[in-house]
Amino acid sequence: MKQLNSLKVWLSVVLLLCFSLSGQAQFLRTSYFMEGSNQRMQLNPALMPGHGYLNIPVIGSLNATVNSGSLGYRDIMDIIENSDDSDYFMSNDFMNRLDATNNLNVNLSTDILSAGWYKGKNFWSVNVGLRNDIGAAIPKTMFQFMNNMSSRELGDNISDYLGINETINGQKLEINSYAEVGLGFARNITDRLAVGGKVKML
Where are the beta strands (DSSP E) in the chain? Predict the structure, then answer.
């Protein structure tokens, strides 16, 4: 019984700590305008938060960005809704939305360790993180090729494949992965002026 009571006390303390930690789930560019957010220091090291912080490893600072000039959220929803259908990307609506070259960029970043603290009037911050930048260029001819091949009736006969003449070029895939160690410093000069800087090693 005594062990059960001490377990309840420890669980209560852990739950209180979890609820007392501040959480932020904002896109980095949006966080720039949020007073007191420590995420905005990534864009401007002079913008100090209202108090010190210690991020939970990995999930305390996890950012993911996906952008494309021609593919949108509707295409992603179509992929999810029709994941069991291999021809979901063959619709005319999808083909008409494609550009000659379709670029897709994905950026993933997380801080393994991130902390900031005040020492007098100075604010110090340190972070150790991982970054991944992925860029892909997929030409429309790739999708046209898949569309043409799916519309053909191809069997085991070699003659079914004679006369196929398709040109696909211009695909590109670039992946940059790196670790980052950063040390930042900021200080208020006046009520309306602050200076700061950050040194990073990649």
Answer: 53-54, 62-68, 101-119, 122-139, 172-188, 194-201
